[in-house]
Fold this sequence. Notes:
Elements lengths: L8 E7 L10 E7 L19 E13 L10 H16 L1 E2 L5 E3 L13 E6 L6 E3 L2 E11 L1 H9 L2 H10 L18 H4 L2 H14 L3 E6 L1 E5 L24 H13 L17 E2 L2 E2 L25 E3 L3 E6 H4 L2 H8 L5 E6 L5 E6 L13 E4 L2 E6 L1 H10 L13 E5 L4 E6 L1 H5 L4
Parallel strand pairs: 3-8, 4-11, 9-15, 14-20, 16-18
Antiparallel strand pairs: 1-2, 2-3, 5-6, 6-8, 7-8, 9-12, 10-14, 13-17, 15-16, 17-18, 19-20
Helix pairs in contact: 2-3
Amino acid sequence: LGGPDPLDYVSMYRNLGNPALNVPEHWHYVSFGLSDLYGDNRVHEFTGTDGPSGFGFELTFRLKRETGESAPPTWPAELMQGLARYVFQSENTFCSGDHVSWHSPLDNSESRIQHMLLTEDPQMQPVQTPFGVVTFLQIVGVCTEELHAAQQWNGQGILELLRTVPVAGGPWLITDMRRGETIFEIDPHLQQERVDKGIETDGSNLSGVSAKCAWDDLSRPPEDDEDSRSICIGTQPRRLSGKDTEQIRQTLRRGLEINSKPVLPPINAQRQNGLNHDRAPSRKDSLESESSAAIIPHELIRTRQLESVHLKFNQESGALIPLCLRGRLLHGRHFTYKSITGDTAITFVSTGVEGAFATEEHPYAAHGPWLQILLTEEFVERMLEDLEDLNSPEEFKLPKEYSWPEKKLKVSILPDAVFDNPLH
Length: 424
């Protein structure tokens, strides 16, 4: 309402826990403002009582109470404001199982708890308000190794492991900023017996990320401006139409269901999930969805087949390429990078995905700034070998380039500054 912070309030409670369930005393934080508090269209568009209220959720956080603490620390409120600022600015919503890579101790201390997973709050059920439905997503602080395991496998799997280790969260997933060991150091069997087996069996259910990325069409000269929606690196990205943007958003949001015949998801106009995971499996999930009125007719979008492409990622995004290839494409799925600085999107698809506009005959295809790349299993295996050093980021020197001339594909890992300043 005109102030510098997106959240109107953050309530803080002293929660006595539940000794019978081995739940310690803790501070419980609840945000107000991601949902619609007023119903008068000042902050959120009022869409009726049946749909989501505002963004449809509020954030919660449970912080272990230290001995002698008489008042709750206030830094979790700042953390919530930071996450809410991202949601308001990007219109990307969060879902249970999502992860947020923060790369800094959540309380600005020396703690190993530097990232977050999100899950349903164990005490607070969804509520029906006069302005729509609100669910409560709890922030769970995790170590870097736990975040990586969630990316390689899935967030819900790691959350379940955290629940089984009392000092790492326990049944209510209470964050202890003084925790000095990861769950894999506390119980070494968890990595091999649960996570590694899960990755091998299930692959990754991370279907897309918001990222620093861009792509160039190398098959035509840059001065060719015939297509009004072409990508020109070195200039501001051209704007996608609203419908095209929603198509990308919905593809990201729904992810790929685990079916015997994987297909790209339906296209609806809904807010998108910035960090995306596969949703519950369904029998039918394709471009022919039940909400067909919201689908953009494919024939109205010009598909361009490209001969040669150059993909550009920052280091954090590039480090996820092996996950994309091994955890997604080798399991017959897809993976999308959606640019956080513009409309650009890059979707990798395997030959098992139906509904894609990239084909084996034309593996590189674009709808405006949305590029799809189809990779065969054989080429994926080769790329994984060539990209092996992406798994050791500490030995990295930027910029780094990988090239497959016979496939007419080039991948560059570039400093963040290239993406932060398009004219750099």
